[in-house]
Structure formats: C-alpha cells, structure tokens
Amino acid sequence: MRPRELPRRSWLTGVGALALACHGGAESRRTLRIWAHQGQEAEHAALRVIARAFERSGECAGAEVELSFFPDYHLTERLSIAAAAGDMPDVFELDGPLVARFVDAEQLAPLDRLFSPSELDDFLPSIIAQGRVDGRLYAVGAYDSAAVLYYDRARFAAAGIEPPNPTGFVWSELLAACEKLAASGVQPLAAHAGETNDEWFTYAFSPLLWSAGGRLIDPSGTRVQGVLASPANVGSLRAWQELFRRGFASNAPVDPDPFGNGEVAMDWSGHWMARRHQARKGKDLGVMSLPRFGPDSAHACGSFCWSISARARHPELAERWLRWVTASETGVRALVEANGAVPARRSAFALFPAYRELPFALFRQQLEHGARPRPRTPFYATLTREFAAALRDIAHGADVASRLIEAEYHVQREIDRRLPTRREPG
Amino acid sequence: MSVWRREYGRPAYWFLLPALALLGVFVLWPMLRSLWWSLHDVDLLAASRQRWVGLDQYSDLLSDARFRAVFANTALFALMVVPAQTLLALLFALWVNRPEPAWRWLRVAFFLPTVMAMPVLAILWTMLYQPATGGQMGPINAALVALGLEARDWLHEPALALPALAVMSIWQGVGLQMMVFLAALQALPRDVLEAATLDGAGPLQRTLHITLPALRNTIIFVVSVTTIFAFRLFVQPYLMTRGGPAGSTRSVIQALYEMTFVSQDLGRASAGAMLFLLVVGGLTLLARALAREERA
Q1: Which of B127, B134, B245 sits opposite A396 (nearest CB)?
Q2: Taking all residues of chain B, what is their mean pLDDT, rounded to a whole number?
Q3: Does residue A176 surpass a pLDDT of 80?
Q4: Does residue A91 sit in the same domain as residue A169?
Q5: Residues A106 and A156 in one domain
Q6: pLDDT at residue A151 above 60?
Q7: Do A307 and A258 sit in the same domain of this protein?
Q8: Nearest to A166 by CA among A317, A35, A288
C-alpha cells in the first residue's frame, strides 16, 4: 500500500511560514547576547538584576537582553567553540590573562573611545593594564582581585612572632616565622598546592618570582627559553620548595580552608577569603602582602573582565552594556557586594566603608601601587599550564632547574611551531 | 541477486538513505573535517587562519616524547585495568549469581559506583588517598600505618599514581561488567549444568568446562569494551592528579583536550585524534576478529 502523499504545496507553505515566523521574531526586537562566568550564586543573581535594570533603562533602547552563564572553567571553551562556529555573543566576560590571546585571534573590538580620559582615570591602573594590548584597550572589568598573606594574630603571639608590617615579610622573615610556629606545634602555612585550577599557581606565586627580578616570558611574549628557567627563578622556586620540603606547608592538602578551620597559622590566599576569615577570626585576623625576595613587592591582580566581540551584531548596545556593568552605581556596587571582589572603579570605594580598614584597604593599596598583570602573550594558556605543572612537581620534590627547563622547552616548542601561521596575513 | 536488485534495489537505497545520511553527517563528515584540520595549523579561536603543514603535525606528535608518553600511560593503564577488572567482574558475577533475594543487595552494592558521577568519586578517592602531610592523613594511609606499614603519597609518587588511579577505576567500573557477566550466566541452559552435576562434575569442573567456555563471547565483549573505556581515561587523572606527577598519569584524551581547549591548537589535536582513532580502531578490529573466529 502506498502511503498517502502529503500535498506538496501545503508542505512548502508550512516551512515558509515557520521561516518567516523565526525571521520576523528576530527582527521585531533586537537581542543583546551576553555571556558571563557562573561565579557564586549571589554573583550571578546580582548580574541578572543588573541586566534587568539595564533592560528597563533607556540605555537598552527597548532591546532584549539574553544573559547566559557558564561555569568558570567552561567559559573559555564555550567562547572558543563559538569563535570557531562564527557565533560569538555580542559582549562577554573572559579571564584577564586571556585578553591578549583573544586580541591576537582578532576576536575583540577596541574600547579606546568608549571612555573619556577622566573615566579611564577612575579605573584602577591594574584594570587598564590587564585590558590593554599593544597600546589599545580591549577589556575592562567591574572588579579586580588581590593576593595576600592572612595570619592569625593569636597564633603569632603564642609563637613569639612580632606582628608584621602590612608590607609583608621578606623571605627570611617568613622562614623564621614558620620555624617558630612549627616549634610551637602549629602547622605554619596553607599554600593550597593541591588546587586543581592551574591559574592558582601562576596567580599566587608569580609575584614571588617577580620580586626577585624574574619573569615567566620575555616582554615580546614569544620567548621563554632562558627566561622561565633563569637563575633568578630557579633560586626563588628552590626557596619556595623548601616550604614543602621542611613541612611548613602541605603539598597535598585536602581541606580547602585549613586557616579558617584553625589548623594553620598563615594563609597564602586572596581577597575572596577576606569576609569568611573576618567572620571566623574577628580581631585575630592579620593581613600582609605576600612574601618577597627583593625590597619591593610586585602584586598579583586580574579577574574576569568584559569585552565586545569584533563581530558583534549590536556593537552599540554592547558598548552601552559595558559602560553600565562597569559603572560604580549600576554595576560595580551589586557585583562587589555579591562576590566580595575589589571594586574596579576608584569612585566605587566610597560605597564600601570596609575599604577604609584592613584587610580591604591593603587590597586597594596593592592594586593602586605595584600590581602587575600576568604575562600578556597569545601563548598564555600554554605558559600557565606548563608553569602550574612544574610548580606542582616542584612542590612534590622535583629538581627545580631541570623541571623549569622542561617546562620552558615545551612552551617554546609550541610557540615556535605556531608563530609562522600568526605571522602570515590572515 | 540481479533479480533482487531489479525488484528491490532502488527502494532499498531509499530506505538506506536516512541511516547513510546520519552516518555521513555525524561520522564521516567530522572525520574528514578532522583529517583536513590535521594537515593544517588551525587556530580554534581563529579557524579561518589556516596554514597547510602536510604531515608535519603527525611527525611532530610522533617525535614528541610527551605525546608518546601519554599513549604509553594510557596503554599501561589499560593493561592494569582490563585483566583485573574482567577477572574481578567474572568472580563477582559467579559469586552473586544466586536466586536468594539477599544477594540482590550485594549486586546493587557492586553496581552502585558505576552510576555515581565520576567527579564525585574522584574527590572521594583523593580523600581516601590523602598522604600524611600537614598533620592530616587519608583513611588508606591510616589503615596502613595501623598495620605497621609505611604511609605513601599515592597520587604524587610517579610509580604509584597510575596504579592508584587504576585501582579506583576498577572499583568504579567492575559493577557494570559484573552485570554483563551476570546476564550471560543467567542465560546459561540449566539442563547442561544439571546433567554435568548428575555426571559427577564438581563446582570447579562445572565452572571450568561449562560456564567459562559458554561465556567466551561475553568475555571478548567485556574485554574489548573495557579496553575502549580504559583508553578513554580522562576524568580521574584530570581531577585527581592533573596528569602528574611528572606527567605519569597524563592520558591521551587529556592531552587531546588540552591541545583543543587550552592551547586551542585544533590542527594538532585533530592529528592526535586521528592517531588515537587508529590505535583504538585497531584494537576494536582485533576484538572483532577474535569474536568472528569463535563464530566460525
């Protein structure tokens, strides 16, 4: 039996109507596509509120906002897939150190004309440094980050350690404190060497290398040979390895917050633990900059920041969103209240009285003076992965010089292999 | 044949078309695309920026000691997991193959880890393996110390990390293979076993001479599937060791994932995937050939 044929014309009419409906739907109301990292619950709830307020404001000009969240580690993957498929959102967040990579792939629109000189001055210098590649601005964040060393005043007093200055220990002072704490029966330091996120290692320990005059990659961003395994870096990391070798810090901790739980006396950590530590330690909470080798500290900075796609469907709307979400009142306030990060705008500090006192005052001070973004190179992802892998092995006793030379070899090999394609006109 | 072809040939092709179209779109096209990329330097973030490099990426991968090492790690992992897991699954299946309801609970207990999310198990086992540092110690080391043995850093000693992951993976996967064996055991004709019993065969003889030969195809199936699963090792090292220490637990899939999404080096990742396909495809064909031998 032959199946009954559908009348051909009705078929075509149906498909056509559907296509028209879809097309008409897209045209009737403009949609601004925004992608952001998931963050903590309060943080993405805050971003939703900010987006709704933007939608209702005149700034949005009646357009619809489509806000999508991705888990932090997944955002870059999704952006890469979207770039390969030619389907980038109009405006999106990306992790600060990846800005150079996205600029190199010609995925970002410059933002230089978006802000007046006085507005640019209102951003923390670390935010501008993070978003600027080859003299042009491509990304700005609503908040920044700070890495510090928290300590327990009561434990320090019990071990007979003088309260340190907020500028922090030089290395020999850190070791002396560790010895005294260990002698008093307290585990001295949490360094979170079991962290599975590669970025932790580059973020938290590069400042130590910088303070001894070291670098991870040369300023051109294309040579690590002789730079990553420099005598300065080898010396710094041998000293760092001593923390684990002498049992001052665990190289395989399971407890993510041994300081908060009262098991260790110092925490090599960042702004994200400030509220929690304050709540748990109260007046016993002390804070200082991370330990250093030289006379000057170089501070960690960097966080998620906003960029506009070079192929945004609605670039003008995207620019308005970017101004909205990075403005003190409409964006920074709610985000910083939610995630406890450091406001990116100087004018926003007035909204947060906590920044008049430690530990918060130290975060701002570090970002205003001496904060240094992680290397801005298109090969950052490879560099940070290799560096983190080397640091993990070094924490477990690997020979520092040969492990750094190995990391250097693999990063350089990739750079040399891929540089010719980048140099050909696209 | 020709009559069939004349009568049914054209309609047959039309009936085949949906399946062929799906295969073409979801299997053939991605493979051809991947092959094309593997011959170019392709940037995932800027895919239009391609440069023909011919077989350079293949020769580069094959000459890269690290890439050879990830193959060796994965093969070693498979060598540890496949025989042990198959044998254990078979033993468990023989053990729990009893009709009384109480044994059902044991079956469920063995099967439970299979349905739990691997990331959760990875965290659980990281805690179990925790070494004795910083005043803390995991239960496995605590048990060893209680027995008068030395505590070890299971996930960070180059010689121990991969076996530690293998043990965890066997524990996680054995339940599924056990169920496959159990299904095969329950399909065994009872009369043959009863006849053997009447002829005076003991439990061991019945297992060796009747049960095992009857399970031959199931064993081949379990071995080949476990091998493929073992070669797809990713979550355990990615979450528990990050491929360390000194790269001793880095798997092929982890290396391919990192090439694609960390280095965003689509061309090289495609070349690596092609090599991986050759190896796993070769193993699958081998298993099929063995199975065919049995049917012949």
Answers
A1: B245
A2: 87
A3: yes
A4: no
A5: no
A6: yes
A7: no
A8: A288
The separation between CA B109 and the C-alpha centre of its own chain, rounded to angstroms, equals: 21
Convert the pLDDT of each residue in B206-220 to its tens digit. 888 888 888 888 988
B97 pLDDT exceeds 90? no
CA angle A406, A196, A145 (to 5 degrees): 100
Structural domain including A131 reads: 30-145+302-351
Is residue B25 scored above 70 in pLDDT? yes
Question: Tens of pLDDT along A368-406?
Answer: 998 999 999 999 999 999 999 999 999 999 999 999 999
* Token pair belonging to A101: 């990579």
Indicate whether B296 pLDDT > 60. Answer: no
Q: Does a structural domain hold residue A14?
A: no
Closest CA of chain B from A214, distance in Å = 24
> Residue A11 domain-assigned?
no
Structural domains for chain B: 2-38 (no CATH), 65-295 (1.10.3720.10)
CA distance B282 to B275: 11
Number of domains comprising chain A = 2
Per residue in B46-79, pLDDT (tens digit) is 888 888 999 999 999 999 988 999 999 999 999 9
Residue B133, min C-alpha distance to chain A (Å): 6
Q: Which of A261, A81, A209 is nearest to B44 (CA)?
A: A81
- Give me the torsion for CA of B146, B147, B150, B152, rounded to 10°: -70
A381 shares contact with chain B (CB less than 8 Å): yes
CATH of the domain at A79: 3.40.190.10
For the cut 70, the answer to whether the pLDDT of residue A275 exceeds it is yes
- Residues A182-193 pLDDT 10s: 999 999 999 999
A171 SS3 class: helix
Reported ipTM: the value is 0.77
Q: Are residues A135 and A166 in the same domain?
A: no
DSSP string, A240-276: HHHHHHTTSB-SS---S-TTTTTSEEEEEEEGGGHHH
Kindly give the interhelix angle for A400-423 and A231-245, rounded to the nearest 10 degrees. 130
Q: Give the residue among A122, A141, A248 at the shortest CA–CA distance from A188.
A: A248
Task: Decide: A202 and A377 in contact? Cβ < 8 Å.
Answer: no
| Contact residues on chain A for B37, CB-CB shorter than 8 A | none
> A190 to chain B, minimum CA–CA distance in Å?
9
